[in-house]
Amino acid sequence: EAQVTQNPRYLITVTGKKLTVTCSQNMNHEYMSWYRQDPGLGLRQIYYSMNVEVTDKGDVPEGYKVSRKEKRNFPLILESPSPNQTSLYFCASSLSINREGGYTFGSGTRLTVV
Amino acid sequence: SQELEQSPQSLIVQEGKNLTINCTSSKTLYGLYWYKQKYGEGLIFLMMLQKGGEEKSHEKITAKLDEKKQQSSLHITASQPSHAGIYLCGAESDYKLSFGAGTTVTVRA
Hints:
The structure holds two protein chains of two kinds.
Chain A: E1 4-7, E2 10-13, E3 19-25, E4 31-38, E5 42-51, E6 54-57, E7 65-66, E8 76-78, E9 87-94, E10 104-105, E11 109-113
Chain B: E1 4-7, E2 10-14, E3 19-25, E4 32-37, E5 43-49, E6 55-58, E7 61-66, E8 71-76, E9 85-93, E10 96-99, E11 103-108
Parallel strand pairs in B: 2-11
Antiparallel strand pairs in B: 1-3, 3-8, 4-5, 4-9, 6-7, 7-8, 9-10, 9-11
């Protein structure tokens, strides 16, 4: 089944403890992206990647890192999480920009930083 | 980045009635996506519009793109409980995909 898989689905962590949220897609998509969703603010793009080893900042990149060493994986790294990073995170992928098929989203990771 | 404004923010509709959601862009639209989201869950792709005047339908959902007005509308005919959720419009600019804040649809039996 074609899908984007995020792990974990739920995570509670403490301030300052490094964490990684994994994202993997099995569709050979070139484009991958991370979003956070917050009440009243909607979905905001954190980072995106056009292809392997090509990443760029979205609208809210502060406090996050990403890497794209393989086409299928695009992990989101929080080196020192803070409570303002408590949010619902989504990974998405697409064959390329502006594709008829749209973007496929993962099921989300609900992160709580205490 | 591209700003997308959706209206209304939320709406309540009686089952069987029609509804319309609008999405207005701050920049020229070269492609407009519509997604649906159940609260706290992932986004489900509904359709994409690429050309001015384009209109697409999927089951009882119809979307149109007015490039001149930099606007798209989503229309649901004879709403059902399964149509409840959050509808988001999205558009690409400079390799970034931006979304509107969403419209929450509640369908009352």
